[in-house]
Amino acid sequence: MTRIVKDAWAEVAGERTGMRWCARGAGTVIDLTRVFDVVVIGGGNAALCAAMTARRGGASVLLLEAAPDSMRGGNSRHTRDIRYMHDRPSAFVTGSYGEEEFRDDLERVTGGKTNEELARLTIRESADLGDWMPEHGVRWQRPLKGTLHLGRTNLFFLGGGKAMVNAYYATARTLGVEVLYEAEVARLNVRDGVFQSAIVAQGGASHEVRAKAVVVAAGGFEANIPWLREYWGDAADNFVIRGTPYNRGGLLKDLLGHGARPVGDPREFHAVAVDARAPKFDGGIVTRLDSVPFGVVVNRDACRFYDEGEDFWPKRYAIWGGLIARQPGQIAYSIVDARGAGRFMPSVFPPLEAGSLADLAGALRLDPEALVATVEAFNRAVRPGSFDPSRLDDCRTEGLHPPKSHWALPVDQPPFWAYPLRPGITFTYLGVTVNRHAQVVLQDGRPAPNLFAAGEVMAGNILGRGYLAGFGLTIGTVFGRIAGREAARHASR
Q1: Can you give the pLDDT at residue 301?
Q2: What b/e sequence results for 209-235 when a residue is b if at least 16 CB atoms lie within 10 Å of its CB, and e otherwise?
Q3: What is the pTM of this model?
């Protein structure tokens, strides 16, 4: 049965037609009793790349998105750029970015916690993204200048991540991918590593969806606070979840229960410093702060705890969320003076402002004497140099612990600003092991023949820790395409 719904993006609902279960998806009523070639579980970048690629490979494809259509796209909605290998500048990047430099950047942030084969595969397979993504509806914008300094290494989406997601959904629909929203997969039926069906909660009922192959691209478990608490204790209650509230890790836990080999440290995650006033979920990129290098950062005891000028991008970006997660109460305060103000992209929330450090401490409920003493000790330790935020300059402290290695200027010119900071988690690194064909690898080393994974659920193979800006999307796009291609091939046998 196929019936066009008046609203092509109608709210998900289901109906019985004789003995057949049908559900309203993106534009059509979907017969869930049929056997699909490929079922893709997830609704973000990796899932969409898998679905489009499988469909182009001749497979019938059903995409199951747990979120409603108004919140479709997972964490991909909050992205803005993708890192890719290229050998020359273009209208959209300012220079070249070769394989070895890309690999060196990855080494810096992971400390070697990466699968070399899969890392190299990801880097090399990213080379055609500049053409492939526009072929599927994405538009690029001119290189950006600003605190991220990514105009040479990354492509930026015109309209941001939501525009990219919308473009992919439109392309998927044109290709004939069937999409079902508010369709949460409760569990998978897997026998000896072979996928049989998915049990889907949708429309107030439970349904068994069968397919010849499945791609799991349903994200990690960063939105599952009880699961985070297993590794972080009560500290997890203070974490801010930057992305979708739908990444609760049900499918990850299910895959592990079916014998998938785990990969990644469950205590590792990509977390950045975000404004503590951000919403608990779905705050996105606008809540991130990059004021850290332009002043000092103190904890709730008004003590500095790490080198604010340790390194340039990308390392600096990747570490501060984890650092704050390990501080008392998972709270910190970025303090800048009139000299530092205006050197960074501001938060969506206004800073707390005061004419003196003591008054600022009062507004932050910190010990005024302790804060003044911390900042004055820092100021005395500053050694003059040539301040330059575009490089690792020679402005540093001397005889201070922790030091500030670069961009150290006295914090002594009122007014003083403060931003409260919390760890903002983007995604988790515990996942399932995959091979170069995106097949899930079982505990005994066998690849599951028709069970594939892409995106955050397998990113820990490549990102054991740390983060490179735009690299999560690279992994999702590369392995989404691989998973979709291989799933379609399996279905055609």
Answers
A1: 98
A2: bbbbbbbbbbbbbbbbbebbeeebeeb
A3: 0.89
